[in-house]
Amino acid sequence: NFMLTQPHSVSESPGKTVTISCTGSSGSIASNYVQWYQQRPGSAPTTVIYEDNQRPSGVPDRFSGSIDSSSNSASLTISGLKTEDEADYYCQSYDSSTVVFGGGTKLTVL
Amino acid sequence: QLQLQESGPGLVKPSETLSLTCTVSGGSISSSSYYWGWIRQPPGKGLEWIGSIYYSGSTYYNPSLKSRVTISVDTSKNQFSLKLSSVTAADTAVYYCAVHGDQNWFDPWGQGTLVTVSS
After folding, report:
1. Which chain B residues are within 8 Å of A48, Cβ to Cβ?
2. Of A49, A108, B51, B53, which has fewest CB within 10 angstroms of its CB?
3. What gap in Å lies between CA B23 and CA B29, rounded to an integer?
4. What residues contact residue B73 under an 8 Å CB cut-off, 6+ apart?
5. How far is Cα A92 from Cα A80, in angstroms, rounded to an integer?
6. Which residues of A touch B3 (CB under 8 A)?
């Protein structure tokens, strides 16, 4: 079964840049689009990146997504960190008619 | 703009069937552009996709839940529904409904509803 692996947690200071990885267990992560969702406590997830590197309207350009085929991974990069970016982040993709979510990464901005 | 709202019992007894409905507003569930999905999140844990349905009734399910899941659509009410049978405490979670296209980008999501499995 295809799985997506994320670091359990990351932390960084305000104003800095952080990158969250999402590694595919098999095949090519580049074969299907990767999405990234932000989830604050008590709220439903919202999209910060879709189709690998596209930002929905209203998401600041501090958020960017990329794919690295050599490491079979996707990355979410947040620059100019703000305390409001503190949340859980989930990657999501698709393989063999199955939607898969990564385990989530808790971002702490301190 | 599409909006989704989950509804259903917040408490289900072990071995019984969990039933939830998602009501869609701001658009038609019969649109050929969309699929309609269910995702759940146990307390303090990550997201798990349950399954999705197309307006025509075509479905695809998470293999780990497939034997217990049924998703259906009611175009006359602009709703789709989830049934999960033989529930246990491990099925306690916040259940979300969401819409996605054929590239599987889930957006928007409903606000979620907590279902607790307990006697």
Report:
1. none
2. A108
3. 9
4. B29, B36, B53, B55, B57, B79, B80, B81
5. 24
6. none
pLDDT digits (tens, 9 = 90+) for B12-51: 999 999 999 999 999 999 988 899 999 999 999 999 999 9
Print the SS3 string covering chain B.
Answer: CCEEEEECCCEECCCCCEEEEEEEECCCCCCCCCEEEEEEECCCCCCEEEEEEECCCCEEECCCCHHHEEEEEECCCCEEEEEECCCCHHHCEEEEEEEECCCCCEEEECCCEEEEECC
Say whether the peptide bond before residue B42 is cis (omega within 30 degrees of 0): no
The pLDDT averaged over each successive group of 10 residues in chain A (110 residues) is 95 98 90 96 97 97 96 97 98 93 97
Specify whether the CB–CB gap between A20 and A75 falls below 8 A: yes
Distance set, CA A60 to CA A48, A80, A107 (Å): 9, 11, 17
Contact status of B106 with chain A (Cβ, < 8 Å): yes
Closest to B107 in 3D by CA, of B36, B20, B32: B36
Contacts of B49 in chain A (CB under 8 A): 98-101
